[in-house]
Design goal:
The structure is a homodimer of 273-residue chains.
Chain A: H1 3-9, E1 22-24, E2 27-35, H2 47-64, E3 68-79, H3 84-100, E4 104-113, E5 117-125, E6 140-144, H4 149-158, H5 176-182, E7 188-191, H6 196-207, E8 210-213, H7 219-222, E9 230-234, H8 239-248, E10 253-260
Parallel strand pairs in A: 3-4
Antiparallel strand pairs in A: 1-2, 2-5, 3-5, 6-9, 6-10, 7-9, 8-10
């Protein structure tokens, strides 16, 4: 067991933990960290882009649970030397991203720190939540978008090269338009944050089902994390309808596997501490 | 204006920001950071004590708004070298403190980091919230507990000396028993986190009223932060009742000033970046 799983296992079991968000009275609530030198390096992105991505990765959790994000709390630890211009750019990244999704920033905390560490809580209206569990034997598995760019661009950044300004690693594209329309036909969903193969392992654990792949997925695609595309399962009788919604919303869609009773082994290296 | 106020001023105004917690549908929601080398040093406290204090300072915000804390989300950034024993001790500090207040930990995030940085969101049932605003001219001001120990012990720790294991700096004592009983007679409240004189400035701003002190308060008392005692205002006709509740719950109480129309100047040095 890795240390993260060990630490989480030290807590009392609750019915809420383990999904992308906890569900309470028709609200989905999630909290995620976006820390300098853990999730990003300062030289990779502008402060505006950092604040935007911090918001987007949190909003992504709400969307894949079929929640409408409404409120955010921001805790921002900021180096003392940041200028007012830098603070303003950072705030603009948070505020404009919140505005784009109709989110009101209702509170949080600001402290001085040696690096820029962001922690965000998103509260979403979630009257018909979609969980990781819920997948049934025979369901089809699909993901949105084209996977692989995020990992490739992360590797470029790590060796000091630059990436396209429109890179998904810098600017994740969320699939809210597709997902909300398709939600009535989806049984189980999560966002691809650790990588398709990693995240399939979570679906496997939540549903005790494995997968028969009928589309081969190369490792650079299956092991690419931080894609924030949607991985989901649905009853095969909805395939046509879901493909139609994907075309309508111009969302690339790959239907790649079927849920079956068998074990599953993730081929990627573990990426948690 | 300090950088913290400047940064907060960059955001769209919302009716929620500025109190100890935001209020949403009978819930009080607050998020606070508790970061290594910002709020504590590793050698000052055990991991159990760090986790406990991180929880308590967040729970304090809920209590002084007259909220009953119900749920917590924890984001914990942990150094990679922490052993399982250390992780267990940390988790125990969070869990036991949550249990003591009837709080369910519903989610959060765990990441590897260079230092131990904790960010907690507390959600509290809050059907009759008490705000910072609400104080009226002629109201009496009071605080619970004996102030000064936290500052004195912080100074000891900063110069490498040790403190009493029961120090309020290590183990804040919350006044939930007193406060919930007294709440029907309280018009305005907040916890003393930055120091009495600092926090009076916040009451001053929220209510446009100053204070006539009839109990002299020395600077080492008025400038002592992280006390997590309660500062509150009430109609003088409730004084007897409030003093009675304080005796009943064995809560030291100092009624020290009256709210009047005049300016207020905080005598302490600013402690935010």
């Amino acid at each position: 067991m890795n240390k993260e799983d060990y630490f989480i296992g030290c807590f009392a079991e609750t019915p809420f933990i383990g999904d992308d968000a906890a569900i309470l009275n028709d609200m989905c609530i999630s909290q995620d960290a976006f820390f300098e030198n853990v999730h990003f390096k300062r030289e990779w992105m502008s402060l505006y882009e950092i604040a935007r991505k911090a918001m987007l990765v949190n909003i992504s959790d709400a969307i894949v649970m079929n929640g409408r994000p409404k409120y955010a709390l921001l805790t921002v630890a900021i180096p003392k030397h940041y200028t007012r211009k830098e603070l303003k750019e950072l705030a603009r990244g948070f505020q404009e991203t919140a505005d784009a999704f109709g989110i009101t920033i209702i509170g949080g905390d600001t402290i001085a720190n040696i690096k820029l560490d962001i922690s965000i809580t998103i509260m979403a209206e979630c009257s018909r939540p979609i969980l990781r569990s819920g997948m049934k034997e025979g369901d089809l598995l699909a993901y949105t978008g084209r996977l692989g760019e995020s990992r490739r661009d992360l590797q470029r950044l790590l060796r000091g090269a630059s990436v396209n300004p429109g890179s998904r690693f810098v600017h994740p594209v969320l699939r809210d338009r597709f997902f909300y329309k398709a939600a009535p036909f989806i049984r189980s969903a999560m966002d691809i944050s650790d990588g398709l193969f990693h995240d399939l392992e979570k679906l496997h654990r939540a549903n005790r089902l494995g997968f028969d792949f009928f589309v081969p997925i190369p490792k650079p695609v299956g092991c690419s994390g931080e894609e924030f595309e949607v991985l989901f399962a649905f009853d095969p009788r909805h395939e046509k309808r879901i493909r139609h919604i994907a075309r309508l919303t111009r969302t690339p869609l790959t239907v790649f596997a079927r849920a079956v009773r068998k074990p599953y082994h993730n081929l990627c290296r573990p990426n948690h501490f």
